[in-house]
Design goal:
This is Clavaminate synthase-like protein. InterPro entries: IPNS-like_sf (IPR027443). The chain is α+β, with helices and mostly antiparallel strands and about 350 residues long. The chain is about 25% helix and about 25% strand. The protein is built from nine helices and 19 strands. Strand 11 and strand 12 form a beta hairpin. About 45% of the residues are buried.
Protein backbone atom coordinates (compact mmCIF):
# COMPACT_ATOMS: atom_id res chain seq x y z
CA UNK A 1 0.00 0.00 0.00
CA UNK A 2 1.39 3.41 -0.94
CA UNK A 3 1.84 6.14 1.66
CA UNK A 4 0.34 9.57 1.38
CA UNK A 5 2.82 12.42 0.74
CA UNK A 6 4.28 13.92 3.93
CA UNK A 7 3.13 17.49 4.60
CA UNK A 8 4.44 20.03 7.12
CA UNK A 9 3.54 23.15 9.07
CA UNK A 10 5.63 26.26 8.27
CA UNK A 11 7.97 25.37 11.17
CA UNK A 12 8.48 21.83 9.91
CA UNK A 13 6.10 19.78 12.07
CA UNK A 14 4.50 16.86 10.21
CA UNK A 15 0.76 17.24 9.49
CA UNK A 16 -1.86 14.57 8.92
CA UNK A 17 -5.56 15.10 8.34
CA UNK A 18 -8.16 13.59 10.63
CA UNK A 19 -10.22 12.27 7.70
CA UNK A 20 -7.11 10.38 6.50
CA UNK A 21 -6.48 9.10 10.03
CA UNK A 22 -9.97 7.58 10.07
CA UNK A 23 -10.30 6.38 6.47
CA UNK A 24 -6.77 5.31 5.53
CA UNK A 25 -4.50 5.09 8.61
CA UNK A 26 -2.13 2.59 6.97
CA UNK A 27 -1.28 5.20 4.32
CA UNK A 28 0.12 7.51 7.01
CA UNK A 29 3.16 5.39 7.91
CA UNK A 30 5.62 7.67 6.11
CA UNK A 31 4.21 10.71 7.93
CA UNK A 32 4.32 8.95 11.29
CA UNK A 33 7.89 7.77 10.72
CA UNK A 34 8.97 11.28 9.72
CA UNK A 35 7.32 12.75 12.83
CA UNK A 36 8.35 10.20 15.45
CA UNK A 37 11.36 8.43 13.94
CA UNK A 38 15.08 8.79 14.57
CA UNK A 39 15.95 11.07 11.65
CA UNK A 40 17.96 14.03 12.93
CA UNK A 41 15.32 16.46 11.64
CA UNK A 42 12.39 14.65 13.28
CA UNK A 43 10.62 16.79 15.88
CA UNK A 44 8.80 14.04 17.75
CA UNK A 45 5.47 15.80 17.24
CA UNK A 46 2.61 15.43 14.74
CA UNK A 47 -0.20 17.91 14.02
CA UNK A 48 -3.71 16.62 13.25
CA UNK A 49 -5.74 18.90 10.98
CA UNK A 50 -9.35 18.74 9.76
CA UNK A 51 -10.83 17.93 13.18
CA UNK A 52 -14.59 17.66 13.75
CA UNK A 53 -16.10 21.15 13.90
CA UNK A 54 -17.03 20.85 17.59
CA UNK A 55 -13.36 21.02 18.63
CA UNK A 56 -12.76 24.82 18.61
CA UNK A 57 -15.74 25.36 20.92
CA UNK A 58 -14.56 22.64 23.34
CA UNK A 59 -11.08 24.17 23.43
CA UNK A 60 -12.22 27.76 23.91
CA UNK A 61 -14.72 26.88 26.64
CA UNK A 62 -12.22 25.02 28.81
CA UNK A 63 -9.22 27.32 28.30
CA UNK A 64 -11.27 30.34 29.34
CA UNK A 65 -12.30 28.40 32.45
CA UNK A 66 -8.61 27.83 33.23
CA UNK A 67 -8.19 31.61 33.36
CA UNK A 68 -11.30 32.03 35.51
CA UNK A 69 -10.19 29.32 37.95
CA UNK A 70 -6.85 31.10 38.39
CA UNK A 71 -8.79 34.24 39.40
CA UNK A 72 -10.59 32.53 42.27
CA UNK A 73 -9.44 33.49 45.74
CA UNK A 74 -6.47 31.41 46.88
CA UNK A 75 -8.43 29.85 49.73
CA UNK A 76 -11.08 28.73 47.22
CA UNK A 77 -8.50 27.19 44.88
CA UNK A 78 -6.88 25.41 47.82
CA UNK A 79 -10.18 23.60 48.53
CA UNK A 80 -9.52 21.61 45.37
CA UNK A 81 -6.02 20.30 46.14
CA UNK A 82 -4.78 16.81 47.03
CA UNK A 83 -1.50 16.60 48.91
CA UNK A 84 -1.93 12.82 49.33
CA UNK A 85 -1.65 12.37 45.54
CA UNK A 86 1.37 14.68 45.38
CA UNK A 87 -0.98 17.26 43.86
CA UNK A 88 -1.74 15.01 40.89
CA UNK A 89 -5.50 15.54 41.23
CA UNK A 90 -7.13 18.93 41.41
CA UNK A 91 -5.27 22.23 41.71
CA UNK A 92 -1.48 22.48 41.96
CA UNK A 93 0.60 25.66 42.18
CA UNK A 94 4.19 25.94 43.36
CA UNK A 95 4.41 22.22 44.16
CA UNK A 96 6.31 20.96 41.11
CA UNK A 97 10.09 21.25 40.98
CA UNK A 98 11.23 22.72 37.66
CA UNK A 99 14.78 23.84 36.91
CA UNK A 100 15.69 22.95 40.49
CA UNK A 101 13.11 25.13 42.28
CA UNK A 102 9.36 25.25 42.99
CA UNK A 103 7.46 26.35 39.90
CA UNK A 104 5.21 29.34 40.58
CA UNK A 105 5.08 30.40 36.92
CA UNK A 106 2.11 28.18 36.18
CA UNK A 107 -0.84 26.60 37.93
CA UNK A 108 -2.38 23.28 36.90
CA UNK A 109 -5.63 21.42 37.35
CA UNK A 110 -5.29 17.64 37.00
CA UNK A 111 -7.96 15.00 36.43
CA UNK A 112 -8.64 11.80 34.55
CA UNK A 113 -11.27 12.84 31.98
CA UNK A 114 -12.07 9.25 31.04
CA UNK A 115 -13.19 7.97 34.46
CA UNK A 116 -13.79 9.59 37.84
CA UNK A 117 -12.81 6.68 40.07
CA UNK A 118 -10.49 3.81 39.10
CA UNK A 119 -11.57 0.21 39.64
CA UNK A 120 -8.33 -1.13 41.11
CA UNK A 121 -7.38 -2.73 44.41
CA UNK A 122 -6.90 -0.69 47.57
CA UNK A 123 -3.29 -1.85 47.49
CA UNK A 124 -2.78 -0.14 44.13
CA UNK A 125 -4.60 2.98 45.30
CA UNK A 126 -2.30 3.23 48.30
CA UNK A 127 0.87 2.52 46.32
CA UNK A 128 0.05 4.79 43.37
CA UNK A 129 -2.13 7.68 44.59
CA UNK A 130 -0.78 9.87 41.77
CA UNK A 131 -2.82 7.81 39.29
CA UNK A 132 -5.35 5.73 41.18
CA UNK A 133 -7.24 8.43 43.03
CA UNK A 134 -10.67 9.98 42.63
CA UNK A 135 -11.09 13.12 40.57
CA UNK A 136 -11.58 16.41 42.38
CA UNK A 137 -13.93 18.93 40.76
CA UNK A 138 -14.98 22.47 41.64
CA UNK A 139 -18.42 22.59 43.20
CA UNK A 140 -21.13 22.81 40.55
CA UNK A 141 -22.16 26.20 41.94
CA UNK A 142 -18.64 27.59 42.41
CA UNK A 143 -19.08 31.14 41.20
CA UNK A 144 -17.12 31.94 38.04
CA UNK A 145 -16.30 28.36 37.03
CA UNK A 146 -19.74 26.82 36.54
CA UNK A 147 -19.59 23.95 34.06
CA UNK A 148 -15.88 23.29 34.74
CA UNK A 149 -16.19 19.52 35.21
CA UNK A 150 -18.19 18.92 32.05
CA UNK A 151 -15.98 21.20 29.95
CA UNK A 152 -12.87 19.37 31.19
CA UNK A 153 -14.34 15.96 30.45
CA UNK A 154 -15.67 16.97 27.04
CA UNK A 155 -12.32 18.26 25.78
CA UNK A 156 -10.35 15.48 27.49
CA UNK A 157 -12.46 12.71 25.96
CA UNK A 158 -12.28 14.36 22.54
CA UNK A 159 -8.47 14.39 22.66
CA UNK A 160 -8.41 10.86 24.11
CA UNK A 161 -10.50 9.45 21.26
CA UNK A 162 -8.23 10.96 18.62
CA UNK A 163 -5.14 9.87 20.56
CA UNK A 164 -6.38 6.26 20.55
CA UNK A 165 -7.00 6.48 16.80
CA UNK A 166 -3.52 7.89 16.24
CA UNK A 167 -1.98 5.17 18.42
CA UNK A 168 -3.64 2.52 16.24
CA UNK A 169 -2.24 4.20 13.11
CA UNK A 170 1.23 4.26 14.73
CA UNK A 171 1.22 0.51 15.44
CA UNK A 172 2.71 -0.69 12.10
CA UNK A 173 5.60 1.73 12.57
CA UNK A 174 6.00 1.23 16.34
CA UNK A 175 5.96 -2.59 16.19
CA UNK A 176 9.32 -2.50 14.43
CA UNK A 177 10.83 -0.85 17.51
CA UNK A 178 8.87 -2.13 20.52
CA UNK A 179 10.82 -4.45 22.82
CA UNK A 180 7.70 -6.64 23.19
CA UNK A 181 6.15 -7.45 19.81
CA UNK A 182 2.83 -8.27 21.52
CA UNK A 183 2.52 -4.71 22.82
CA UNK A 184 -0.30 -2.68 21.24
CA UNK A 185 -0.12 1.10 21.75
CA UNK A 186 -3.83 1.63 21.21
CA UNK A 187 -4.75 -1.17 23.63
CA UNK A 188 -2.34 0.11 26.30
CA UNK A 189 -3.88 3.57 26.06
CA UNK A 190 -7.56 2.69 25.57
CA UNK A 191 -7.67 0.20 28.47
CA UNK A 192 -5.57 2.23 30.89
CA UNK A 193 -6.87 3.76 34.11
CA UNK A 194 -3.91 6.14 34.44
CA UNK A 195 -4.89 8.67 31.76
CA UNK A 196 -4.26 12.17 33.12
CA UNK A 197 -5.15 15.58 31.74
CA UNK A 198 -3.50 18.81 32.81
CA UNK A 199 -5.23 22.15 32.35
CA UNK A 200 -2.52 24.81 32.54
CA UNK A 201 -2.62 28.50 33.40
CA UNK A 202 0.70 30.32 32.89
CA UNK A 203 0.55 33.38 35.10
CA UNK A 204 1.61 36.68 33.54
CA UNK A 205 5.30 37.31 34.22
CA UNK A 206 6.12 39.51 37.18
CA UNK A 207 5.66 43.26 36.82
CA UNK A 208 8.44 43.95 39.35
CA UNK A 209 10.80 45.35 36.72
CA UNK A 210 12.31 42.01 35.69
CA UNK A 211 10.26 41.59 32.52
CA UNK A 212 11.66 39.34 29.79
CA UNK A 213 13.96 40.69 27.12
CA UNK A 214 14.92 39.33 23.72
CA UNK A 215 17.86 37.45 25.26
CA UNK A 216 15.77 35.73 27.96
CA UNK A 217 16.26 31.97 28.39
CA UNK A 218 14.35 29.84 25.91
CA UNK A 219 12.64 27.99 28.79
CA UNK A 220 11.62 31.13 30.70
CA UNK A 221 7.94 30.09 31.19
CA UNK A 222 8.40 26.32 31.49
CA UNK A 223 11.75 24.53 31.74
CA UNK A 224 12.95 21.92 29.28
CA UNK A 225 11.48 18.54 30.14
CA UNK A 226 10.20 15.23 28.81
CA UNK A 227 6.67 13.93 29.32
CA UNK A 228 6.63 10.47 30.89
CA UNK A 229 3.65 9.26 28.84
CA UNK A 230 3.49 7.08 25.74
CA UNK A 231 1.84 9.92 23.80
CA UNK A 232 0.77 13.39 24.88
CA UNK A 233 -2.06 15.28 23.21
CA UNK A 234 -1.69 19.07 23.09
CA UNK A 235 -4.12 21.89 22.33
CA UNK A 236 -3.04 25.18 20.81
CA UNK A 237 -2.39 27.68 23.61
CA UNK A 238 -4.70 30.63 24.19
CA UNK A 239 -3.22 33.98 25.26
CA UNK A 240 -5.50 36.24 27.28
CA UNK A 241 -4.90 39.91 28.08
CA UNK A 242 -6.36 40.96 31.42
CA UNK A 243 -8.75 43.90 31.49
CA UNK A 244 -10.44 45.85 34.26
CA UNK A 245 -12.12 43.98 37.09
CA UNK A 246 -15.32 42.29 35.96
CA UNK A 247 -14.58 42.53 32.22
CA UNK A 248 -13.76 39.42 30.21
CA UNK A 249 -10.12 39.22 29.04
CA UNK A 250 -9.22 39.76 25.41
CA UNK A 251 -7.80 36.88 23.38
CA UNK A 252 -4.55 37.91 21.67
CA UNK A 253 -2.40 36.06 19.15
CA UNK A 254 0.60 35.72 21.49
CA UNK A 255 2.93 37.89 23.51
CA UNK A 256 5.53 38.16 20.77
CA UNK A 257 6.80 36.18 17.75
CA UNK A 258 9.24 34.42 20.09
CA UNK A 259 6.57 33.29 22.60
CA UNK A 260 5.43 29.68 22.75
CA UNK A 261 6.42 26.03 22.52
CA UNK A 262 9.99 25.05 21.60
CA UNK A 263 11.17 21.54 20.73
CA UNK A 264 14.60 20.01 20.21
CA UNK A 265 14.81 17.84 17.10
CA UNK A 266 16.31 14.36 17.29
CA UNK A 267 19.51 16.03 16.05
CA UNK A 268 19.45 18.66 18.81
CA UNK A 269 18.33 21.72 16.84
CA UNK A 270 15.88 24.07 18.54
CA UNK A 271 12.59 24.71 16.73
CA UNK A 272 9.59 26.84 17.69
CA UNK A 273 6.37 24.95 16.91
CA UNK A 274 2.99 26.65 16.59
CA UNK A 275 -0.13 24.46 16.82
CA UNK A 276 -2.97 26.02 14.76
CA UNK A 277 -6.00 26.85 16.91
CA UNK A 278 -8.21 24.35 15.08
CA UNK A 279 -5.69 21.49 15.32
CA UNK A 280 -4.32 19.07 17.90
CA UNK A 281 -0.73 17.93 18.26
CA UNK A 282 0.66 14.70 19.71
CA UNK A 283 4.21 14.15 20.91
CA UNK A 284 6.16 11.17 22.21
CA UNK A 285 6.95 10.56 25.89
CA UNK A 286 9.54 8.69 27.92
CA UNK A 287 7.39 5.58 28.44
CA UNK A 288 7.50 5.03 24.67
CA UNK A 289 11.25 5.63 24.63
CA UNK A 290 11.76 2.94 27.28
CA UNK A 291 9.33 0.53 25.57
CA UNK A 292 11.34 0.83 22.33
CA UNK A 293 14.76 0.55 23.96
CA UNK A 294 15.50 4.18 23.11
CA UNK A 295 14.71 3.83 19.40
CA UNK A 296 11.73 6.22 19.56
CA UNK A 297 12.88 9.03 21.79
CA UNK A 298 10.81 11.31 23.98
CA UNK A 299 10.37 14.90 22.79
CA UNK A 300 12.32 17.57 24.76
CA UNK A 301 10.25 20.74 24.95
CA UNK A 302 9.84 24.00 26.85
CA UNK A 303 7.84 27.25 26.77
CA UNK A 304 9.23 30.77 26.33
CA UNK A 305 7.55 33.97 27.52
CA UNK A 306 8.79 36.32 24.79
CA UNK A 307 9.47 40.01 25.23
CA UNK A 308 6.47 42.34 24.92
CA UNK A 309 5.20 45.61 26.34
CA UNK A 310 2.05 43.73 27.47
CA UNK A 311 3.92 40.90 29.18
CA UNK A 312 2.73 41.63 32.70
CA UNK A 313 -0.94 41.50 31.61
CA UNK A 314 -1.04 38.39 29.39
CA UNK A 315 -1.52 34.80 30.57
CA UNK A 316 -1.20 31.56 28.61
CA UNK A 317 -3.84 28.82 28.84
CA UNK A 318 -3.45 25.34 27.43
CA UNK A 319 -4.39 21.69 27.89
CA UNK A 320 -2.35 18.49 27.72
CA UNK A 321 -3.56 14.88 27.85
CA UNK A 322 -1.05 12.26 28.96
CA UNK A 323 -1.86 8.82 27.56
CA UNK A 324 0.01 6.00 29.24
CA UNK A 325 -0.36 2.36 30.33
CA UNK A 326 -1.46 0.93 33.66
CA UNK A 327 1.17 0.89 36.38
CA UNK A 328 1.84 -2.87 36.14
CA UNK A 329 2.66 -2.74 32.42
CA UNK A 330 6.24 -3.85 31.70
CA UNK A 331 7.95 -1.18 29.61
CA UNK A 332 11.11 -3.24 29.50
CA UNK A 333 12.33 -6.43 31.23
CA UNK A 334 13.68 -4.22 34.02
CA UNK A 335 10.93 -1.71 34.79
CA UNK A 336 7.15 -1.27 34.88
CA UNK A 337 5.38 1.98 34.11
CA UNK A 338 4.57 2.31 37.81
CA UNK A 339 8.20 1.98 38.86
CA UNK A 340 9.30 4.42 36.19
CA UNK A 341 6.66 7.01 37.04
CA UNK A 342 7.52 6.85 40.76
CA UNK A 343 11.06 7.85 39.83
CA UNK A 344 9.74 10.80 37.83
CA UNK A 345 7.45 11.96 40.63
CA UNK A 346 10.32 11.73 43.11
CA UNK A 347 12.34 14.08 40.92
CA UNK A 348 9.61 16.69 40.50
CA UNK A 349 7.71 16.45 43.79
CA UNK A 350 10.43 15.89 46.36
CA UNK A 351 8.95 17.47 49.49
Amino acid sequence: MSSKPVTFTPEGAVCISYPDLISSPLELESSIEKAFGSDSASLGIIVVTGLPPVYPELRERLLKLAYKFSKLDEDVREKYTSSSSRYSFGWSHGKEIMNGKPDFLKGSFYANPVLDSPSVSNEYKTAYPEYYGDNIWPDADESGVEGFEQAFKDLGRFVFKIGCELAAACQPFAIKHLSDSNMSLSRLISTSQTTKARLLHYFPPSDDGSLPTEDEPIDSWCGFHLDHSLLTGLCSAMYLREREMGIEPDAVSSLSPSSGLYIRTRGGDLTKVAIPVDCLAFQTGEALEIATGGKLRATPHCVRVGASADTCKVSRETFALFMQPNIDQQLSPDITFGQFSKRVFDEHYNF
